[in-house]
Specification:
11 strands, 9-stranded mixed beta sheet, 355 residues, two-stranded parallel ribbon, alpha/beta
Amino acid sequence: MKCFGEHWGLEFSPEEIAETRARNGLLSLELELSRACNLRCLYCYASSGAPQDNELTLDEILDVVDQAAALGARKIIVLGGGEPLLYGNLFKVIDHILAKNIKVDLFTNGMLLTPDNAKALFDRKVSVVVKMNSRRPEVQDLLAGHRGAFTAIEQGIETLMAAGYPSKDRALGIETIICRQNYEELPDIWRWARNRSIIPYIEMMTLQGRAKENPDLEVSIPEIRQLFETLAHIDYEEYGNQWYPHPPLAASQCARHEYSCTVTANGEVNPCPGVSVAVGNIREQPLTEIIKKSPVIHDLRNIRTTIKGRCSMCDLGNYCYGCRGHAYQVTGDYLAEDPMCWLEVHKKAASAGAD
């Protein structure tokens, strides 16, 4: 049995994170290339579609990679911002990252995958996460805002698997956003992924971008709690994985604010895609200065002591701080308690504090 204990879901050890925090460094970086996208997903945090007028040049992107490497980054997550396979210099960026001895994760909608570019990704040991929200064509197409998306995404996943994914050093995952339209089928999607050794990233939606325009996507907190508990039961009973269900990710957690940040397609530096607060721009300041001097980054690097409300009293506070994106998008305060959290330990802790 695989048991996820106190630090389950963390890519880096607590010691590595503490050392990185102390030196104002990085362990990972999320990098947008362009907001150009061939889909119009109803929940898209960036409202992607057309490229922005002031997007980073290739040289500027490569310089961001160099700066991240100097700060100690060991992984760069290429988000695209839109769809990275639309970006003409994608493999130049990937090769530059790999030349710095930094691992690459690529998030894609999968629609533009071909045998050639899938092989190119596999040969470079790039881990790939495909955005797949439903196993039903009508639902997938609706959520993607594009007719035929389901068929193209299916073909993309099949192309990756034909190239050799998943394998050692080449993970394959699916990113699935919890929506009203796909809620009932999420346990089956979990099994579909696990049965193929694909990592399921089933996560809660942040209320930003197009999600704010589509309130019919929202799922209640009690329903999300029930879903996470169901997935935890399935994972334990059928796959031997044991984990404690809590937001915002099933079978995982978010700790990125202690060691990472996001560089957007126009050079803004945000703590993460959910905490869409510009703390600087790489066209105006080096990344090292932004990280070292930003009060927002400092607050989030020390989130275990700066967090507010029920989260500050939670028994799980040593390894969970909820979703900062949820907190920021709902309350306007990135240090606020996670308003989407259902954990009973909050109530127990709050009661104990009141005695």
